[in-house]
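Quick note —
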Amino acid sequence: MRKHFCVLLFTACGLWAMVIALFVAACSSSSGGNEEQSDGTVKLVLGKLQVPLFDSVSVHVSAEDMKSLHISANFVNDDIKIEGIPLGENRKFEVKVYADSGKEVLRGEAVADIIANQTATIPMSLAALSGFLRIEIPLGLANSENIHSGILLLDSLEFQMQIENGKGIFNTGALPLKQTLSLYLKLMDSTGYILFFGEDSIMLSSFSQTKTMQLQSTRSSAILEIEASSGESMQILAMLPTATSRSPQNYGDLFFTEIFAYPKTKGEPFEYMEIYNATLDILELSSCRIARSRSDTSTSNRVLMSSMSDTPESLILPPMEYLILGRDSVENADFHYQSFNLNNSGQNLGLGFYCGSFVIDSLNYSSPFPLKQGTPMQLPLSNFKNRTDGNSWCLGFSPKQDASCR
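Predicted structure written out below.
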């Protein structure tokens, strides 16, 4: 059998060292105004403790001249308060974080003096003892490859793939650090036939890491290109066998996902639009325009994409990614325009995305679209088939991420 290759990129996210703070404030346990203070209270501020499959956090306080104290919490929404700590020097604080059914995944310790009526901040570094692996595979909202399920094997461990908004996602439990694991991955259709498979080995470190592996295809041609972002959340750009680089041609190749047509203050300079590439192709936008209607040529009623950049190479939208177009005052916009105005009242509330003679997306965002002053309106990707229905949209702000309507 002739073998073809596709490239898959994933991130192995170890629980990297994080810093928490111990805000130490000694306070009296007695009611008498002149009595000597004898114990103190510590407020443990964990901040955003984001641990997959989190179970609990425990704090142990000890010293040679005191009886040890212990406290634990099964959730961390607020600060953890530890009361009754005897005043004195060299109080040792040990923090342990558990996840995935009781496995210790983070550990740290610090020493502080508990002094009456004084507050101290003691930084604590939590060292990772385990790591978690996340793999994301872009399938496309239409899932043209008909991938129905997937299995990830790590030594004797098995994980099932979840499909969410056009992506196949594997999330593992806690894995040992600095230990080589054998990895085998396969993607199947609805009959169980294997469409893609691959095997490799991986060693998790205590820091975020990126690894490239090759999946062999049981059919089709080679996958040509792969890229990855360097941010906290992993993004994968994988060109599947039928993928190419082209101009949008079909209705729904890309569509509007967020529109801010009615800013609360100062009006037009803060308007913006967000579009999303729903295909697995790289879409070239230099021949495209946004306008109130296909035939509108007024400069205040349309935006020519070719006028927004000096380099055609930058007018591309990778598969399953967002692009924000906004007025000059929109700092997070990928491209800025100057004269186009988004209507927010009256009958002319049409908006379309056109490439040559093709209509790629078109909206008339009148009622029941949630057009409200001071708040953008957004479309969850799961509602893309009904995006012309205003009931599929909601108010909210979610630039470059999937919207959530509640």
